[in-house]
Each structure stands twice: as structure tokens, then as C-alpha cells.
């Protein structure tokens, strides 16, 4: 049975490659780690404070949209 599963997976991967895609491995933060949410809050607070004190940020963002 595993051989047929392996063949089906390989066929699917071959089809993806034939359509111009390639596999990529990426590493992302582990959201299950203790302290992850606290670190997100800490960084968000830093960004919020920076946004409040940067008087030119709104103008910069508006200009970027045009």
C-alpha cells in the first residue's frame, strides 16, 4: 500500500513542477512555544509607540499609496 501512496505523491509533485512550481522549505516561529504571545505583545507595543511618536509616518504611508 505505501508504494501506491508514494507514487501518487510523486505524481502530484511532478505535476506541480511541470506547472512551473518548485518546493521550498521555510522556517517560521513556533507559535506553540511558551512566551510567544508575550513576545508578540512586546513587539507590537514597541511598534505602536513608534507609530505614535512618528509625525511623518501617516504622510509617508499616504504617499506610498499614490
Tell me what you see in this structure.
By secondary structure, this protein is mainly α. The protein is built from three helices and no strands. The longest helix has 18 residues, at 36-53. The mean pLDDT is 92.
Total discrete domains: 1
Which percent range fits the helix content?
55-70%
Distance between the termini: 57 Å
Number of DSSP strands? 0
Question: From the alpha-carbon coordinates, what is the Rg to the nearest angstrom?
Answer: 23 Å
Low-confidence runs: none
**Tally of individual helices:** 3
Give the ordered list of helices and strands.
HHH
Proportion of residues in extended strands: under 5%
- Largest β sheet strand count, sense and barrel closure: none
Structural class: mainly alpha
Overall mean pLDDT stands at: 92
Morphology call? elongated
Question: What's the topology here?
Answer:
Layout: H1 2-18, H2 36-53, H3 57-65
What are its keywords?
3 helices; 66 residues; mainly alpha
Structure summary:
This protein is mainly alpha-helical and 66 residues long. Helix content is 67%, strand content 0%. It is built from three helices and no strands.
Amino acid at each position: 500500500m505505501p508504494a501506491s501512496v508514494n507514487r501518487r505523491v510523486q505524481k502530484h509533485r511532478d505535476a506541480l513542477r511541470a506547472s512551473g512550481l518548485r518546493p521550498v522549505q521555510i522556517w517560521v516561529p513556533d507559535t506553540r512555544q511558551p512566551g510567544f504571545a508575550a513576545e508578540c505583545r512586546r513587539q507590537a507595543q514597541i511598534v505602536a509607540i513608534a507609530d505614535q511618536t512618528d509625525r511623518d509616518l501617516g504622510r509617508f504611508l499616504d504617499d506610498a499609496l499614490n
